[in-house]
Amino acid sequence: MRIRVFDTTLRDGEQTPGISLSPDQKLSIAKKLDELGVDAIEAGFPIISEGELKAVKMITSEGLSCEVCGLTRTHKKDIDAAVDGGLNYIHTFIATSDIHLEHKLKMTREQALAKAIEAVEYGKSRGLQVEFSAEDATRTDREFLKQVFREVANAGADRIDIPDTVGYATPEYISEITKDAIEATKLPVSLHCHNDFGLAVANALSGIRAGAQCAHVTINGIGERAGNASLEEFTMGLQCLQWDQKYETGIKPELIYETSRFVSKIVGIQVQPNKAIVGDNAFGHESGIHTHGVLNNPLTYEPISPELVGRKRWLQVGKHAGIHGMNAMLEEYGISPTEEQSKQILDKVKVLGDQGIQVTDVELLSIASEVLREAGIKRIVHLTGFSVSTGIGTMPYAFVKLNIDGEDFIGTDYGVGPVDAALNAIQKITGKISEIKIKDYGLASISGGSTALCEVTVRLEDADRNKVTSKSVGEDIVTTSVQAVIDGINRIMLKKTLREKLANN
Ligand code: MN
Asked: What pLDDT digit, counting tens, does each position of 422-477 carry?
């Protein structure tokens, strides 16, 4: 059965607290969603602002292959704004639950029903495709909900949507009212499910099982409060889970991850690492048992292949690691330790893991290079000159000279203090080479007194998202900070060198 995907990233998704998009940003997301293969996008709520209307106009004039819809209340001026935005498809809504009627709309059920009918009739008179939503449907009196759906269908609505506005429904109840809506209207029915209890996708799927043909979803599940049903979970659930019939959508799964990253970057909301399908950890393995299993056959611990959704599997070592997974990772870089060396490397990995340090592949390579001294893996970045000046009435200033693989580089910069100035100067040099950035800086004093030793911990990341944590202990805060950063840079560069060496062989 072909299921319709109605994406509301640009409307409900944009209503996520803290998100506000410019018309250009909205257009760029609309194009991306169209490429992904959604059937319809809700481009916005045209009446709310000039910018929103402009965005809707830009999207409707782009000639996308998907349908473009706009949200309206039941007011005529909202529907007129949608027409002004170039839309020929609206999603119009009015609340039908007693809670909303009494405390928000100050209307009786009859008044709300009359407004709903009026809006549908007006939308149809303006030549629009009309999808009607009974806001807060799942907390609406069930008989009244049926009546509303029946009467808006008689008034000419083209589609019915059931919004679980506050994510309050159970999959069982969604199934029941979906059947009610189909019976009362004989129209195509959609679900609009929120994730307040983590059930948005389960509820949307339950609606589909009960005969609905469409779900409203968002990329990464963004949306008001706990968000909406996520496109990636809903569509991959339909495609991959064990159902008694086949479900198809127009989504190109291999573009899912790329689209998720794109939206996350534009809206400025990071995807939680343990998010299904698109989270950083969705196809990552650390535990020895899992890594061993996946290396033998990925199906042991992966329900679907990461390539299916445009991703790659990754393995990480840590305190749960086993020798198989670790050796497989080292092999990728052309490093084959002996059994004894493997044990030594793994011991060091577990010590770091127990200290709570995330052992990235960069960390693993640098441990391996320490153990396998004879492999001739050398430090690439050397600090050959360094000075800072600071004081009162002067701006802290640093001069840094680095030798990187035989070539000299000089960087100078100011900062809020001498450490900041030194790190800025280093980043000026490394920024040119591999865009290494300092993501985190921590300072602790080890013993008391003015001669105390300090411990500096820095977290670095390069353009390919290679991460490394590096530590240095010393007497001088500034020098120790610089050493920690140089050490981290060396370890990130080590990975690059090994990759290049392997490519040249
Ligand atoms: Mn919503």
From this structure: 988 988 888 777 778 888 898 887 766 766 788 888 988 888 888 888 888 888 88
Distance of CA 303 from the midpoint of ligand 1 (Å): 30
Tell me the C-alpha distance between 200 and 426, whole Å: 47
pTM (whole model) above 0.90:
no
- 152 and 63 within one domain: yes
Residue 272 in domain = no
| Residues 364 and 488 grouped into a single domain | no
Q: What's the CA-to-centroid distance between 12 and ligand 1, angstroms? A: 5
Tally Cβ neighbours within 10 Å of residue 60.
Answer: 21
Does residue 197 share a domain with residue 345? no
User: Based on the domain organization, do 347 and 307 belong to the same domain?
Assistant: yes
Q: Which residues surround ligand 1, an ion (CB under 5 A)?
A: 12
d(CA 275, ligand 1 centre) in Å: 20
Encode pLDDT of 166-195 as tens digits.
999 999 999 999 999 999 999 999 999 999
Asked if residue 150 and residue 62 are part of one domain, the reply reads: yes
**Cα 308 to ligand 1 centroid, rounded to whole Å:** 29
- Is 103 part of any domain? yes
Q: How far is the CA of 227 from the centre of ligand 1 (A)?
A: 8
H-helix segments, 355-473: 361-371, 418-434
* 58 CA from centroid of ligand 1 (Å): 23
Bridge partner residues of 212 (DSSP): none
Q: Are residues 367 and 395 in the same domain?
A: no
Domain of 53: which CATH number? 3.20.20.70
- Ligand 1 center to 304 CA (angstroms): 29
Classify residue 273: in a domain, yes or no: no
Residue 481: CB atoms within 10 A of its CB come to 25
Domain stops at, among 267, 302, 332: 267
Range of the domain at 474: 381-504
145/374 Cα distance (integer angstroms): 76
Question: Which amino acid, 161?
Answer: D
Q: How far is the CA of 81 from the centre of ligand 1 (A)?
A: 20
Ligand 1 centroid, distance to 29 Cα (angstroms): 19
Choice between 372 and 148, residue whose per-residue pLDDT is larger: 148
Closest CA to 147 of 102, 189, 188, 117: 117
Burial class (CB in 10 A: 0-12, 13-18, 19+), 80: middle
How much distance in Å is there from the Cα of 19 to the middle of ligand 1? 15
Domain count for the chain: 3
Residues 29 and 114 grouped into a single domain? yes
Distance 15 CA to ligand 1 centre (A): 9
pLDDT tens column, 383-396: 899 999 998 888 99
